[in-house]
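Entry 14. Two folds queued back to back today. First construct below, sequence then structure tokens.
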Amino acid sequence: MKDNILVVYFTRTGRSEKVALELNKHYKCMVEKINEKEKRKGISGYIKSAWQGIKKSTCTINKAKYNPQNYNITIIITPLWVGNISSPVRTYLQKYSDKINDYGIIVTHNSSSYKAAEDEIKAMLHKEPIFQVEYKKKDIDNNSINVLDILKFSH
């Protein structure tokens, strides 16, 4: 029996969405973009995101369409903001952490210091993920990511 999988992501640049859609293409997951009330376009959006990354702050997000409790696995995709998870993903995890069953982490980034983000997610969910993967910006942009191996366990 295939696992019931929910992919939850936030994207400012489109890269995390690209990974989410690639997962959906191969695994037929339910995909939910975390939508927030604020806009993050342009240089002001970049600066705001960086500041929220440094401060590890939250933001106002729209109510989730899908309840993660109804899925065996929730895959959390977050970009790095100054080495930390994005504030929309942080807010989502604070709101829904008690509803997430097994989960996996995918970090999209342009640096090499993603461990703190993974550690923050583990601490928020109070359990270990079933997998952790990171994809660099250049690999996403060049269509060089391979999502086929990360869910081998579910088949």
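Second construct, same run, same settings:
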Amino acid sequence: MKKTIQIFPRTESSSNQEPPFFKKKNSSNTTIFLLDKKINMSKNKRYGGASRKTRSIGLTCERICSRFPLFIESKESWEVSVDSVVRTLNASKGSVYEIFHVLEGILVVSKIGTKVYRWNGFQPLRTVLSFLQVIGRDCMGLEARMRRVKQHELSNLVERSKVKIITDADEEVEDAIDRSFLSSGGDDSSNDANGNIHILEACQQFVMIFLLAPDPKVITLEYAAKIIYGTNLSVQGVQSRTRRLCDMANVLTSLPIPFIEK
């Protein structure tokens, strides 16, 4: 029989001494090996000069993850509810839900009931990432979609450059053409309906993009948004999806075993 362990609630001010289940790194620097890649991370490097508002979801994710072990015993079952996290950490319910959706996307947690999740730990992470890489490449054709979006962006850049030369003296016309290009549809018509895909699926595709991208695997959030949600988005639509991906990235980079670096 599995031993069920419930982490929350526990008030942070109740004691300076952490309970036995609380796993905390002794150093702010962590060196990890994942998918044959060596990543050196530190809190200062990971967050840089970002404002507290920008990195708050990442800090909330760190506080949640710090209360669970990286690897769990097979006879244990660690469970947590969204409401208890919100109450204990005084966090936004929307942010907590978003964090758990991202963690669920890489199987660090599994949903087992209404607002209740089971903590799986990071044992399956390598397998999950390998699985996502295969799914993205062989089942979803994500590499071809990435190439089409890149070609679409390059074509728009060339066309806008031509327009700028021709209409350099007429800023009003130039701005109108730029807006037209930014909101125009691309070649990826198969992705038109992706504008409202669930955050869990969006997170998985976001990770797939990094796994399938050629070295040095540097991806802009706007580029990723167009791959995931399609190129037939308005300027406001691209900005909205980019902000969502920014939150996902903050969660992923705040994990105790990060595999994406900002």
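Quick look at the second one. Strands lie at 3-6, 29-34, 37-42, 76-81, 109-113, 116-119. The longest strand covers residues 29-34.
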